[in-house]
Design a protein that fits this description.
By secondary structure, this protein is α+β, with helices and mostly antiparallel strands. It folds into 2 domains: 10-231, Rossmann fold (3-Layer(aba) Sandwich); 246-338 and 347-357, Nucleic acid-binding proteins (OB fold (Dihydrolipoamide Acetyltransferase, E2P), Beta Barrel). The protein contains 10 helices and 18 strands. The chain has helices spanning 50-58, 80-83, 100-110, 115-128, 144-156, 174-191, 202-208, 226-231, 236-241, 349-359, and strands spanning 10-17, 27-34, 39-43, 65-70, 73-74, 86-88, 162-166, 194-199, 211-216, 219-224, 246-248, 257-260, 266-268, 279-290, 294-300, 306-312, 324-329, 334-337. A 6-stranded mixed beta sheet has the order 6-7-8-3-9-10, with helices on both faces. A 5-stranded antiparallel beta sheet has the order 13-17-14-15-16, with no helix packed on it. β9 (211-216) and β10 form a beta hairpin. The structure holds adenosine-5'-diphosphate and magnesium ion. Magnesium ion binds at residues 50-51.
Length: 360
């Protein structure tokens, strides 16, 4: 029986990967602790080192430095199939000549499990991914989303210590992607297994994850819950990679940049006043885009910097292109970020500001 497990912890310590050729390491001295049962996402742009790190955890790529432990056991030099990890890639990689049933049974037969147990476990995961009606089909007779469900079922059927997924939804269209996202979240709840999920899609990361590690040029810039990363980004890169933001470099005395999200910004028509203590700045409306439940208002600030505000349908009029407006926000909703990564353990400018306010 597939039981909700306690999950297994994974500790990455000072891991680097230097490929022959490129001057810069693909993964540069990365440390990260993934808790048992956690849904951890590696998020970052293409080429930032996500796949390389995942591949080192899986055992397909050797480490240039550092170590990887699972439940405290150093697996850095253990062969992939002995690490007991489930892996799903973007391309389905199913056996084309085998039925759905046989594809899923394969890893159990490799492990020489008794026939009755194989049948019971396969039936269980086929139910988990809702493919009961498709057990006898060949992969070519399935849609892309169904094929990826088979890959997920095959990756968890032997109860691996963790499930590693590299952009598993990348080849699907938006509707299927949303559907499978929900399925993956449900699988995680039901299995209680440690999941590591790689994506370059911030929405996917924000929706699915317990915590997100944001990758940039081979390093992790920040690790945190979706809320922490969105509300308290520590660097300009994190602020700009996750969601939209208005960025002001002149407002912070200590040289950080002030970042505020479009939905926290208030537009003032002539007449209404900015509450005391709120930040205020003048702007020109350069674009108004209707988006159903809100208007997105493009703004240009006096220093030429572009930004945006979100005006919910039913609230104030969004204004028109060319309007001069006053923009304000509550400083509690802004973050002050460094424009480069902070050393580990160093507090961010926001934390310093918050601490100074608390001390005052
Ligand atoms: P991501 O998954 O975030 O897109 P990758 O881990 O695939 O990033 O790649 C990180 C960097 O390492 C990139 O600069 C990429 O070109 C380089 N790289 C990846 N695989 C190899 C390889 N086998 N040989 C040389 N360079 C590689
Ligand atoms: Mg990749």
């Amino acid at each position: 029986m597939i039981q909700p497990s306690d999950g297994h912890g994974i500790t990455i310590s000072g891991v680097s990967k230097v490929y022959a050729g490129p001057a810069r390491p693909a993964v540069d001295d990365v440390s990260l602790t993934i808790a048992p049962g956690e849904f951890m996402t590696f998020l970052g742009p293409s080429g930032s080192g996500k796949t390389t790190l995942l591949s080192m955890i899986a055992g397909f790529t050797t480490l240039s430095a550092g170590s990887i432990r699972i439940d405290g056991q150093d697996v850095s030099r253990v062969k992939p199939h002995r690490r007991n990890l489930g892996v799903v890639f973007q391309q389905y990689a199913l056996f084309p000549h085998m039925s759905v049933y046989r594809n899923i049974a394969y890893p159990l037969q490799q492990r020489k499990l008794p026939k009755a147990e194989v049948a019971a476990r396969v039936a269980e995961v086929i139910e988990l991914v809702h493919l009961e009606a498709f057990a006898d089909r060949l992969p070519a007779q399935l849609s892309g989303g169904q094929q990826q469900r088979v890959a997920l079922a095959r990756a968890v059927v032997y109860q691996p210590r963790a499930l590693l997924m590299d952009e598993p939804l990348g080849a699907l269209d938006k509707k299927l992607r949303d559907q499978l996202q929900g399925e993956i979240a449900r699988m995680h709840r039901e299995l209680g297994m440690t999941f590591i999920f790689v994506t370059h899609d911030q929405h996917e990361a924000l929706t699915l994850s317990d915590r997100i590690a944001v990758f940039n040029e081979g390093s992790i810039e920040q690790v945190g819950t979706p809320t922490e990363l969105y509300e308290q980004p520590r660097t300009l890169f994190v602020a700009q990679f996750l969601g939209e933001s208005n960025t002001f470099t002149g407002l912070d005395r200590d040289g950080g940049a002030v970042v505020v999200r479009p939905e926290r910004v208030v537009l003032h028509a002539g007449g209404d006043t900015v509450p005391a203590g709120h930040q205020r700045i003048e702007a020109t409306v350069v674009e108004v885009v209707y988006a159903g439940n809100h208007h997105r208002v493009g703004l240009r600030f006096p220093d030429g910097v572009q930004g945006s505000a979100m005006v919910l349908a039913g609230s104030a009029a969004p204004g028109a292109v060319g309007d001069s407006v006053v923009v304000s926000w509550d400083p509690r909703h802004q973050a002050v970020v460094a424009d480069r990564p902070l050393p580990a353990g160093h507090e961010s400018p926001t934390e310093a500001v918050v601490r100074a306010a608390a001390d005052a």
